[in-house]
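Loading example: each entry is read as two labelled lines plus one structure line.
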Amino acid sequence: MHGSWLNGTMPSTEVVSSSPEATMEIGRQLAQRLRPPVLVLLSGELGSGKTTITKGIISGLGVAREEEVTSPTFTLVHEFRKHVRVFHVDLYRVEGFHDLESLALEDAFVEPAVVIIEWAERFVLRTDWPQVAIHLEHVEADTRRITITLPKN
Amino acid sequence: MRILGIESSCDETAASVVADGREILSNVVASQVSVHQKYGGVVPELASREHLRSIVPVVREALDCAGLNFNDIDGVGVTCGPGLVGSLLVGLTYGKVVADALGKPLIGVNHLEGHVRAVFLEAFRVDRRPSLPAVCLIVSGGHTVLYEVAATGPPEPLSAALLRYGKIGQTRDDAAGEAYDKVAKLLALGYPGGPIIDRLATHGAQSRRAHAEHIDFSPTKLRGNPYDFSFSGLKTAVLYYLRAHPELQPEIEERRRVLGSGERGGDKLVPLCSPQTLGLLVAFQKRVVAELARRTLQAAEEIAAQSILVSGGVAANNELRHSFEREAEQSGVPVFFPSRQLSTDNAAMIAAAAYPRLLSGQRAGLDLNAEPVLPLA
């Protein structure tokens, strides 16, 4: 249903999701394009669907079921270790905190992994890994506008 | 038999001595709330540093308060997960060193099992025992999970009974305590959100007939496991409410300014919250508690539980306690909580959880490792 955007050559694609289930499906499809090392940067307001799309990405990568992917706000980082290493990071709470080393995130970058970061706009990450940017916006009730920018090439 | 318990899984450095898994001889907790407050939550590396600073004096104080020396201890129980790995390692390493130096047994304890035992510690104190099997809701900033709890062998004495756990349900997104923190942040009420919202909502409910506005959030609907929880939608509903009511922005700005200047505490915030905000908090808290209570009571009925146990930081919440007590009375299944002091993280519950394991001959080696993700079932 959302397959067409994946085949596009545009660096940036906009899709509209009308339900959390559809948002997860977009995540699952995106997962097929992700090869480690890659950084997935999620931005968008509270409740815009960042954890929901992450559920799709992580289940699409085959490292956990959707219901096993919960908000990492409290512990900041959840790690999934199977055939691919996946880190799910949430920087919601660390607004104004600029010492990235203090978040013990450096482990995520020592070997190729899929690193998914919620509230990515709060940090400048120094890494040469390819980056996928996903921006989610509230449209109404369950509807979200999702803008995905894939790395060039 | 006296066990030294050590707990450092998150932002409290704690040590305690518990006799025979039931009598608390000392219970020392060094909280780091003030360290993390300005970040609106626990920052892992800062937490590790604070644990390092506190662990030695906290353990020493626990022994002093109990009137004991290291040599009077019969074993060491230490939290090995789940939690922040850097935090866990501090308590775990110290516990290993103490056990090894004294030649005493070391027991690794799952933090979540500690929360279950915290309920028992209070039950022993007031001499009102929960019967098994039970359902146990563990609800805190990091966890919202529902277990079936049963004895693997003789259930008496409860302090010595080994338990087995079966997971019935859990949150699919935010933990309940996390939802409190996020809503507190949206409304500029400070951190941690749970106790602050509880106080403001209680105030709002009491003054409700006079002036608080009536707002209602609808029940959360989930597909699949009927005992799973979800608090993400409720958080979003609060956000939508704020968007639809821009008249609340000036007071949010004012509270942000006051909090930014260093003022803390619910009492200072009460005059800065309009009846509408208090009404919103009443509705939010009511919905969180209703979601927790409904599923827990249904699960209790489903497994024919003899009792309901509620533990973890959010178990200190007044509305939650009243609501569970009210509904449990109707259903005829008694509900048990830890004391408020033992609801939040502490080491007495870790020592109590170590006791039956020690009795049954379980020992951890010096290779015991910290497990950030450690399921109880």
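Chain B has a mean pLDDT of 93.
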